[in-house]
Automatic annotation (TrEMBL):
InterPro entries for this protein: DUF1468
Name of protein: Tripartite tricarboxylate transporter TctB family protein
Signal peptide, first to last residue: none
Transmembrane helix keyword on record: yes
Stretches that traverse the bilayer: 34-53, 68-90, 111-131, 151-171
Species this protein is from: Nitratireductor mangrovi
Length: 196
């Protein structure tokens, strides 16, 4: 027996379209999803086309133990699901308006900015050192995200310093010392290379 009152059930079933689908069943579709569907399906096709050059089938091995088997399964599934997503997106776009597509795509591409930040960070660590680079980048990203209060900036810098200490000192992750450390006095240079 349902715990939902009959009036509530009736209200939920009244707003269904001609296919019996309510707005709560299928959230509104955005036209930019078509851009994502095309890109992901295209990438799956690119990967599928490169399987013969990136993997190999070894002689005298069971099928599931072949180096190429699981990548082939994964890429085939990716292409199949990508094709389904593309088909559904094309169908939905015919039925609904695709307003705001460019704005949404622009917003997605805005995330690439942070990939750029990370690439610059990775490039700078061997030059300027893990500790100073991490502190500069946590502070800069905090400001970039719009946080301006001294408490928030201090929390970001503390988080960056804690991350460096945990990874380098406690976990013993080997991260190359910065070239700038060569200009420090020998005792401080060794400390920075080993612990920061």
């Amino acid at each position: 027996m349902s715990s939902i009152p009959d009036k509530a059930v009736q209200a939920m079933t009244d707003d269904r379209d001609e296919n019996g689908v309510a707005d709560t069943d299928a959230p509104p579709h955005h036209g930019a999803q078509l851009v994502f569907a095309v890109a992901s399906f295209g990438f799956a096709l690119f990967l599928a086309a490169n399987i013969p050059w990136q993997t190999e089938w070894a002689k005298r091995l069971d099928v599931v133990r072949q180096p190429a088997f699981w990548p082939t399964v994964a890429i085939t599934a990716m292409a199949g699901f990508g094709a389904l997503e593309l088909w559904f997106c094309l169908r939905r776009n015919r039925e609904r308006s695709a307003d705001g597509t460019l704005g949404e795509v622009r917003r997605w591409l805005g995330a690439a900015e942070y990939v750029g930040w990370f690439m610059v960070y990775v490039w700078l660590v061997p030059q300027t050192g893990y500790f100073p680079t991490t502190l500069v980048f946590t502070g800069a990203l905090t400001l970039r995200l719009g946080y301006r209060s001294p408490a928030t900036l201090a929390a970001a810098l503390l988080t960056g310093a804690t991350t460096v200490v945990v990874f380098k000192s406690f976990l013993g992750v080997r991260i190359p010392g910065g070239a700038i450390y060569e200009f420090l006095p020998p005792a401080l240079r060794n400390f920075m290379i080993l612990y920061l």
